[in-house]
């Protein structure tokens, strides 16, 4: 039996950083990973997909070159092998960087293999037992495949396996119209595939307000993506040249199918029952405001605790745990404001509540909207799709939430995020002087328009 001060299961976006902080303090830590250092973000998530989104945007801009006075002789074509290679390189550089950093760190032992609890303070891995008084779970999540009739009779892709494609699908059907589905749908359309998004809900990106979902749909349809919402009873049959997907009274004949209907936590094969760690009905590990599970000495960080599903929420879990356990602070999960971006192009940057959430909170809600077509920066760049809106509490003057769907929306939203994080009232921000011409310069004006 090998003894450590702390054991980390999963090397995602929280565990490695906390392991490093603990090792710096002279602790002896084991970091167990069954696949690749860096987890989903580095290997099958943000990094490769945002690299692909960048390639797809380059195609889009090239095709629009003549509008901006750029003459490109000959047809614009896409080399999918180069596209894939570039995404793979970004992943490999990050993965190798982590391996160098952690591999050379005194006090950190990296163990590759699948870990399972043997007891609340010990882990079985590759036939060996490791024990520690502190165990941190950072096991992440994986794609969930619904029990669609016929799905197992056809070939389908997930957000992970699609990264290995180096040819262009004739017709990509994307099941699920949320983050993963919409990002892949738009990039493949831009690469040159016919694309159909098939979504069960009445709107794409259905967690958003209807005006946001509708604006996203308009953007996607303008690029030639077929969007089918309200799709009930989806079934799959293998056809002569692909897959026949039927839903309601419609059918689509696709060459490739991407299933992007959500993710499920990697908690089913961890032996949590042996350790007595509680999970909720969806398999997420139950944690308190400081990320502790119900078992003393065991914490759960990142996607597997169901309190966030993004790289920045996982990394923030590390920051909370490190602050509380190593720096004598008292940081809480409940202080975190929900923020994220949907990386279609133009992106959707989001902070805080939707209008639907704000209205149902019982507050007096003020709203201000502005189309991107009224934004100078957007006009100058010839990219006026989308809109921005902000919500505030009429009584407390708090900023409650915002959405910026438009060029640089993922960056410009940070003005709102920082204001919300510091508790700045909208009345204090209305008269700040922004730089012209930027998308962010609209924020003070937007706040002055709250009614
Ligand atoms: C296609 C896609 C695009 C995304 N894009 C974005 C984005 O743009 N921005 C954003 O913020 N988020 C994005 N995400 C989400 C983001 O990737 C995740 O929220 C984030 O990676 C979660 O990190 P984590 O630390 O919780 O776990 P993960 O990064 O999932 O890491 C968990 C690790 O644990 C390992 N593991 C699991 N079980 C065991 C076990 N029993 N023993 C040993 N090891 C184990 C796994 O192999 C994995 O390496 C995207 C996700 C996907 C799928
Ligand atoms: N930009 C980003 O930050 C980013 C990008 C990609 C992924 N992610 C993370 O990955 C996670 C998973 O993303 P996702 O898009 O797979 O999941 P999701 O849960 O966000 O969306 C799943 C979509 O599939 C639909 N759906 C579910 N079951 C269906 C069915 N039977 N038939 C048709 N449609 C169905 C849902 O209505 C929903 O629109 C997200 O929680 C997100 O945090 C983030």
Automatic annotation (TrEMBL):
Gene3D superfamilies: 3.30.390.30, FAD/NAD(P)-binding domain (3.50.50.60). It comes from the Bacteria. Its cofactor is FAD. Residues 5-314 form the FAD/NAD(P)-binding domain. Keywords: Disulfide bond, FAD, Flavoprotein, NADP, Oxidoreductase, Pyruvate, Redox-active center. Residues 341-444 form the Pyridine nucleotide-disulphide oxidoreductase dimerisation domain. Belongs to the class-I pyridine nucleotide-disulfide oxidoreductase family. NCBIfam families: PRK06370.1-4 (NF004992). PANTHER family: MERCURIC REDUCTASE (PTHR43014). This is Pyruvate/2-oxoglutarate dehydrogenase complex dihydrolipoamide dehydrogenase (E3) component.
